[in-house]
Amino acid sequence: MAPILEVRDLRKQYKSVRAVDGVSFTVPEGICFGLLGPNGAGKTTVVEMMEGILQPSGGEVRFRDRPIDTEFKRRVGIQFQSTALPEYITVKETLELFRALYPHPRPIDEVADICSLWDFLDRDNRKLSGGQRQRLLLAIAIIPKPEVVFLDEPTTGLDPQARRNFWSLIERIKAEKATILLTTHYMDEAQLLCDQVAIMDHGKVLELDEPQALLDRHFHGTVVQIPNPGDLSQLRQARLPADAVFRDGVIEITSDRLDQTVRELLSAELNLDGLTVHKPNLEDLFIKLTGSSLRV
Questions:
Q1: What sign results for the dihedral spanned by CA atoms 213, 47, 189, 145?
Q2: Do the beta carbons of residue 86 and residue 125 sit within 8 Å?
Q3: pLDDT tens digits for 238-296?
Q4: CA pair distance 71, 76, nearest whole angstrom
Q5: Among candidate residues 216, 212, 200, the one with its CA nearest the CA of residue 290
Q6: What is the pTM of this model?
Q7: What is the pLDDT of residue 113?
């Protein structure tokens, strides 16, 4: 599949701080590409350079094998982390305002269908819930029928139900063959929506591939976790499995033989209340690569 976006040796320097340090990757057309990383990893800086908002210190971004230009900006939609909506006007009036900025915008009915806006089209923007606000911002982003949609942490702060509703909207946009570039702190969101993910930290890409391919590369077996296992000095004397890791008050073991691991834990005379077993996921991978929990 031919790339629609290409990032070549992208760099961004702020005085003594190198926010982005030689990042390169391609985004195939028609997929959802996830850019993941803790705060300070450089992912938002990369996205802003890809959007053409921020000028790189070095390297380049190419769209359909050409440098990004004014024409590129007409062919993309952006939902920023934080956006101020016009006050004292309704959702419908807001859509009409933004439609006037484009030569061939989508009809309001079409946007309202895709983003499920019908129930509050006549509501003042100031009275929208968090989920309704995010749906409106997505609607604004897709008004010009963009070939690429940038979504920068679009579900941060939403309740679980609103997040899942928003995921459905993203799937609808994806079904239109638009390319989506998504940043998120939610690993379940990335694993569900993204066809490929790049994990960043300290301005560099640590890993890039399909989510399941990354998990298969880094993990074998299942993850066993025991919360609040007791005093650390006692744990050091216990006969724990060789690959046991103590992190943030939890013993974590990646096991190829679950039955054998459980026997070893029982022989170590640990309190196993709260023990959980799960297949490795993107959050496990994130912690493995960065050495810490998400810095949100």
A1: negative
A2: yes
A3: 667 667 777 777 888 888 888 888 888 788 777 788 888 988 899 889 888 876 544 44
A4: 9
A5: 200
A6: 0.86
A7: 93
Measured CA to CA, the distance from residue 178 to residue 32 in angstroms comes to 9
CA distances from 243 to 234, 240, 252, 253 (A): 17, 8, 8, 6
Question: Domains along the chain?
Answer: 3-215 (3.40.50.300), 220-279 (3.30.70)
Tokens representing residue 222 in the block: 């299942």
For residue range 69-101, list pLDDT tens digits in order: 888 988 999 998 778 889 999 999 999 999 999
Residue with tokens 């560099």: 204
Q: Which residue type occupies 121?
A: L
Do 54 and 12 meet the contact criterion of CB atoms below 8 Å apart?
yes
pLDDT at position 52 is 92
